[in-house]
Structures are given as structure tokens and as C-alpha cells.
Design goal:
296 residues; alpha+beta; 10 helices; 15% strand
Length: 296
């Protein structure tokens, strides 16, 4: 940060040495720096009672008005271990993006604030917004790791060698990717509850699966279905099998889908629902029963 800028907060600035001073740099604590970054209006989001983003404003409890800002910083930690080992410090230039809620939060809640580090350009508000959107997409990766640990209990496996663990993670990832691809084909966003229209589509799709399956058993012709129709029907059927209550505003979480996937794959293995899985192509390949058994 250019030296001379006023930064609020006690001990916000301290001297590092002549090199930084010659380059016009000042040492600043990250928390104090975030407070000093100029902000621009970004967007208004609707949150539910647990602080999650709602796509449908009717499901939300309150609105949060967000502003964004960015500043270039140089990260150069003086590590004692590196100094003792004679390793030269290599500074890294990054852009700090600040996202902060500007309106008053709900009683008992702290205002939203995200600090994001990136090497992408942040010269305009549009570029800053793109960085924030990319980090929003990255959150799906964090959800995957949470699912792997909390739902599939991978950390509780008794595998004690790297190859076996790698195979386990491969099959677990395959299951998660199948469900994610199915959700994408159905046109549903992850991490937010289905809208009322999407919820009705999923419930109707599950019922239609049962109807067509009964007709197929008696030799009747299966109607021609689009890829999205198949995806909606398969996802709805898996969700209902997993215990999804299909109430308005209820999430379609990975725990429910993975529980339903086991029953769905059992039906497929027994020769049922062949018409639903036919002609789906490699992108919607149904994992085998052996793959499903790995990792729960």
C-alpha cells in the first residue's frame, strides 16, 4: 500500500525497513487495511434465517446490501525459520478484494464481510464483481469436501495406504460429480433451495418415473423425453428416495441425494428404470453398484 495513506486502528502501521520506505510501502494489518479500502455499490442479496443466500426473495428473511472494493498489496512475511535457514524472502503481489454489508444486520448478527485474495485484475467495479462471482463458484468445492467428510465419512475409513485411499476418493468423487452433473442438466442451482416451480417439477417428475416404469413393465412404449426431462425425473426420484420432504424452501442437500442414490442404483442394478438411464451419454453415466458401495 502506498505510504502516507491514513489507516484507522491502533498499531495499524509500523516500520519494516528502508527497502519498503524507498518503494513507498507501509506495513499494515489486514483487518485495518480492509476498513480503509474505498467501497462501491455491488448488489443486494436476500438471506434466510440461517444466513444463506436465497434466489427467491419470498423465501428470505432480510436483505443485505453489499459493497465491494479492492487494493493491491504485497505479502512478505518475515519467517524466523526461513531466516535461520538462510532462505531469502520473496514478496508476492496480490489484489485484496473486500466485500462488506453496508446496511444494519439483524439483531444478534454480525454484518457480512469477505476478504478475498486474487491475482486477477481489479481495476474496475465489473472486474471486482467477476472475482466475487468466481469465489462464489469456488464455494461448491468447499461443499464437496464437507460432503466427503461429514456425509460419506471418508475420514473414518480404515484404509491405511495411499493407493487404497486414492481409489476411495476417486469413486466418492465420481458419485458427487454424477449428482452435480444431473443437477446441472436439470437446470437447478446448488446451495440454494429449489424455487416453488422447480419443487413442483421434481415432485411431478418422481411421480412420472413410477408411472412410466409401471407402463414399461407391461410392455407399453416409453414416451420420448428430452435430456432435461430425464434429469428432472431422475433427480426428483433420487430426492424422494432419499427422504426429501419437498416442502417449499427446503434444501435439496447432498446427504439426501447420496442416500437416495444408493436406492436408485439398486433399482438400476436389478434391471429397473432402464428407459430412464438409456441414451444419456457419458456425461450422465450412472455409477456401477460396485462404485456406489465404495465410500458408503
Amino acid at each position: 500500500l502506498p505510504a502516507g495513506r491514513k489507516i484507522p486502528g491502533k498499531h495499524a502501521q509500523r516500520t519494516r525497513g528502508t527497502d519498503d520506505e524507498e518503494q513507498g510501502l507501509a506495513d499494515i494489518y489486514m483487518h485495518d487495511l480492509a476498513k480503509a479500502v474505498p467501497l462501491h455499490r455491488y448488489r443486494t442479496i436476500t438471506l434466510d434465517g440461517r444466513g444463506r443466500v436465497c434466489e427467491d426473495g419470498k423465501q428470505g428473511v432480510y436483505e443485505a446490501r453489499l459493497s465491494v472494493g479492492a487494493v493491491a498489496i504485497r505479502i512478505a512475511r518475515r519467517c524466523k525459520r526461513a531466516l535461520c535457514a538462510g532462505i531469502e524472502e520473496v514478496p508476492v503481489w496480490l489484489n485484496l478484494v473486500v466485500v462488506r454489508q453496508t446496511n444494519k444486520p439483524r439483531p444478534g448478527k454480525k454484518p457480512l464481510e469477505w476478504l478475498l485474495l486474487t491475482d486477477l485484475p481489479v481495476d474496475t467495479v465489473e472486474q471486482i464483481a467477476e472475482v466475487v462471482n468466481l469465489y462464489g463458484c469456488r464455494w461448491r468445492i468447499e461443499e464437496f469436501f464437507r460432503t466427503v467428510k461429514d456425509v460419506l465419512k471418508v475420514e473414518e475409513s480404515e484404509l491405511d495406504d495411499a493407493k487404497s485411499t486414492a481409489r476411495l476418493l476417486f469413486f466418492v468423487t465420481l458419485k458427487a460429480m454424477f449428482l452435480d452433473r444431473l443437477r446441472q442438466a436439470a437446470g437447478l442451482r446448488a446451495g440454494v433451495p429449489p424455487t416453488d416451480a422447480e419443487r413442483k417439477e421434481l415432485v411431478a417428475g418422481s411421480k412420472r418415473v413410477d408411472e412410466i416404469e409401471r407402463a414399461a413393465v407391461h410392455g407399453k412404449r416409453v414416451p420420448r423425453l428430452s435430456d432435461r426431462q430425464r434429469a428432472i425425473m431422475a433427480l426428483g426420484h433420487i430426492a424422494i428416495l432419499g427422504g426429501w420432504e419437498a416442502r417449499n424452501g427446503t434444501h435439496l442437500g447432498n446427504e439426501i441425494l447420496l442416500r437416495g442414490l444408493r436406492l436408485f442404483l439398486h433399482d438400476v442394478e436389478q434391471g429397473r428404470l432402464a428407459w430412464l438411464c438409456a441414451d444419456q451419454g457419458p456425461k450422465l453415466r450412472v455409477p456401477s453398484r460396485q462404485e456406489n458401495d465404495v465410500g458408503g
